[in-house]
C-alpha cells in the first residue's frame, strides 16, 4: 500500500469513522475466515501448508533456501532472493480477491511493503490464503516467506522504499485483538493531555481530517502500543545513546562506575520530600540522591566516580517537569587545583552528549520532530561556551529580561519563571540553549557547598559558592560544584544551616570526614529524563521516561 | 622503606603492641611539631615554604618545570625529572633526624617509596621539614614535589618497585586523625565475622605475630578505610569490569538498555518478600525484579533488552548469600525458533564475563586471592559447556552424591544443600565451576514459565519447563527461561498456580498480553553481587557490594 498512517502525511490521514467501519469489516471477515478455516483440508486448499496460526515458526516451515533477515538489513543485494521476515503486521489493504497489500514493521520504525497475490504456479498462493492474510489483525506478529523485488515506484509510506516483499508463506505467531485499545497511528500522534487525574479526559480529535490524538493516561493504559509508536521508539533510542555517551566520555577520563544504595537509614538530605518505609521493625528511606555515597567513594580513594541509577522524590508535584522516580547521572571527582576542573568535565560531558546524539541519532531526532516539532537545540561554538556568574545572570535578567524581573537580587535563589526568562535572554543574546550559571549565593545551596572565600560577597554581604547549575532550553538539568572536604568546616556549615550535626544520617556523614583525610572534590548530578526531554523540546519529561512515576500513577 | 604492611609479607607483619606504641609516639611527635610550627618563621627555616598544611595546593606552590603525574603512570622515562604527585601517605618510617621514608599510594594499590632527606643545597630540605613530614598521620592526603630516581635495589614493598621519589616539597592537603578507626593493614586482612548483630563481637587477632583482623561491622563503621584497602579496590574494579563485559556483549548483539521502575503499584510477583511504603495516600511496593517490565518491553516491540539496576527483597535472611538490595543484570529477548537461543545468549555472556575478567583483571584477581585464597574458578573448554537437565542433575546427585541425597526426586525443587552437593559432583566429574541446569519441573517455577509440551513428564507426571538456572561454585547466579507469550495460556497457568488473575498487578500484566500480540520470548536475571563474589570465592556476597544492605544494616 502506498497510503501512510504517519500523521504528517495528509494522504494517509484517515477519518476516525472510516477506521471504525474498517475494524468492523475486519472483525466480520475474521469470523468468516475462522468458519472457513475449520473446513479447510489439503484437498480444499493447495496452499494450506503455507499459512495459518502456528504460535511458533521453526525453520521446518520454510523453504530450505530462504534466509532469515531483519527488515532493517534488507538491501539491493537481496533482490530476487527468498527471505524469511518476522515482523509486526502494521496495516493491510485488500486490492481484490486475488491481491492485497501489507505493511510490515520491525526494529522500531523499519517498515516495508508486502504483497500477497494469488498464484497457481509454484509457489502456490490460493485466494483463500490471500483472504486469510488480509484478515490478520493489525499489530499481530507474523513470519513471512517472500521474494524480494524492486517496486515500480519507491514506496513512500515505508522506510524501506526501494524494496517490496512478494509473500508466499505467512504464519500468524501472535495475534492482536480485532480492536486495539489504541492504534499505532493514534499512538504516534502528539499527546494532548498530560494530566494524571483519574477523571475521564477523553481522547480528542483535533478535526475530522486528522488521526485522533490520545491522552497520556490512554497511552499508559496501552503501554505496548505506546512503546511501539515510532516516536517512543526514537525517544528510547536517543535515551540509550545519551547514557552511552555519558559513560564513554567519563570512562575515557578515568571515571569508575559504582552503585549507590537506594535504601538508606536516614533522610539525610532534608527530610521533606523523602519516601519512608517500614524496615524489619525500623524505618528506611529511599535515596533522594547519591550525594553522600559519591563523597564516600572519594573518601574511600576511588578518585573519580560516576553512577547511573534511580533517585526518588516524595514530592506531590503534578507537573510536566516532575516525577517521583527518575534516573540520575552522577559524577564526583578529586579536584587538583580548582573546582573549575569539575565544571569543565560536566560541561564537556554534556556537550559531548548533545553533539553525539545530533550526529548519531539524526534519524531518531527527525522522527521525534515530526510528532513534536521544536526549535533546533542551539549549542555554543567550541571555545564560546556561555558561563555566567549568578550575579551576572541576575544583572542580565534585570537589564534585558521582562519588567517583572527588574529587581531580582544577587543573593536570592532564582525562581522557575526567572530561569525561563533568563533562558530567553541568553538564547537571543548568545545563540545557545545550553549554558552554565556559576557561583550561586550560599543561601541557595545545601550545607555541603564549598564557599569561595576569595570572591566578593553579593547583595547584603552573602558569600558565593563554587557551585553551579546547567540549563537546557531554560530549564535546569544539572546541579553541581565543589564540596566541603574538611570535617571542621563541614560541621560549622551544617550548624550555620540550622541542621543538627548529631542528627541521623548527618552524624554518620560527618564521621566519614573525621575518620580519614578527604581530598578536595566536587561533582554534579544530571537528570537523564530532563536532558532527553528538554533537548528534544518535548512537552513533558514523562515522555522521556520508560515508565513515568507520578504522585497519581504507579502502573504499569 | 622496605617493610611492607601487606599481610602476606612476614617481614612487614608488625605486632599489635608495637603498632600501638608507634601510634602513641606519633601522636606525641605531632604535638611537638604543632608547638614548634607555631614558632616557625622564614628566618627560622629556609625550607619553610616547601612544606606545611595548605588545604589546597595550586601550581604556584611548585617549581615551574615540575610535571604532575599519577603514580600508576610513572615509568623509567621519568628518571631524573621533577614531578608533582598527589597521594595518600600510607606509612612513614624515621631513619634519622636527617632522613625518613614514606610510602605513597594512589589509584587503588599503586604505591611508591618516597625519601625525604635534609639538604643544605638547593632545593633546601631542612631537618625541621624532615621531622614535619615524618609526623604526618598515615592516610592523610598530600601533594609532594620530588625528583624521580632509581633505587639501589627494587622496593619489594611497593607496586612501583623500580623508582623512588626524592621529596623536596610536601604539602598536607587533608589530614587523617592520629588514631585511625581501622588501619589500612587491618582493612586488608580477611574479615573474620560477617554477623550483623549489634552485640560487640570484638575484632580478633589470630596470633601475636600477625596483623589483627576486623569484623564486617568494624569495616562498615570505617567505610573509607574499608574502601581504601587494596582488596576492596580490586573487588570494586572487577565488579566494574563484569558490568562492562555484560553490557558490551549484549550491545554487540543488538540488545538495548532500558530502566525498569523500582516503585510499583502492586506486589506482583508473590507478596511475601516485598517492601511496602505509603505513597500519597495509597501503597507502593519496591520491585523484586524487572520481570514484568522486561516483558512489557518485548510487547512494546523493543526486541532485545537488558537492564542493570537495583532489586529489593524484604527477606529476613541474615546469611552470606542474602542482601535486601542488590544489583540485577537482566535480559529479555524475542525467540525465533527455540528457547535455547536465550540459554545460549546467557551462557555466552557469562562465559564472556568470566574469561574477560581472567584476562583483563589478572592483577586485581591476584590481589583478592592474596587476602581471600580460593581454588581457581574452572571454566568448561569451548564446546564442552555443561548443560544438564534437572532430571539428569538429580540422577547424578542420587548416584554420585552424598548418601543423604540418594532419594531426591525429579519433580521437586532442589534445596541449597542439594545444589552444593551437586556442584561438588559436577566439579570433579566435568572439571567446571560453571554449569547449567535446564528443564526445571513446573512445580519449581513461577507461573510465567513456559511448559515444554514435547518433553516427557518427570516424577509423578509433572511437566517440565523451558526454564533453567546457572551455577557458579555450587551456587545459583542466574534464573531464566522461556515465558508464556499467549494471554489465554498465561491466564490458565496463573489460575493453575492458585493466583487470582484479577488481583492487583496480575490483572495489568495479563492486560498487556491481551492488548496486543506478543511474540515468543525469554530471558534471565543474573545477580551481579553473586557473580563477583562466587567467581572470586569470597566468603560473603557482602564483600562484593559497595554498601551491603541487610535486615540489620542500612548504613553507611
TrEMBL record, chains A, B:
Its main location: cytoplasm. Keywords: Aminoacyl-tRNA synthetase, ATP-binding, Cytoplasm, Ligase, Nucleotide-binding, Protein biosynthesis. CDD domains: AspRS_cyto_N, AsxRS_core. One of its GO terms (molecular function) is ATP binding. Residues 238-548 form the Aminoacyl-transfer RNA synthetases class-II family profile domain. GO terms for biological process: aspartyl-tRNA aminoacylation. It is an enzyme of class 6 (ligase). InterPro entries: Aa-tRNA-synt_II (IPR004364), aa-tRNA-synth_II (IPR006195), aa-tRNA-synth_II/BPL/LPL (IPR045864), Asp-tRNA_synthase_2 (IPR004523), Asp/Asn-tRNA-synth_IIb (IPR002312), NA-bd_OB-fold (IPR012340). GO terms for cellular component: aminoacyl-tRNA synthetase multienzyme complex; cytosol. It is found in: Cytoplasm. It comes from the Eukaryota. Pfam families: tRNA-synt_2. HAMAP family: Asp_tRNA_synth_type2. PANTHER family: ASPARTATE--TRNA LIGASE, CYTOPLASMIC, ASPARTYL-TRNA SYNTHETASE. This is Probable aspartate--tRNA ligase, cytoplasmic. It comes from Apiosordaria backusii. The lineage of its organism: Eukaryota, Fungi, Dikarya, Ascomycota, Pezizomycotina.
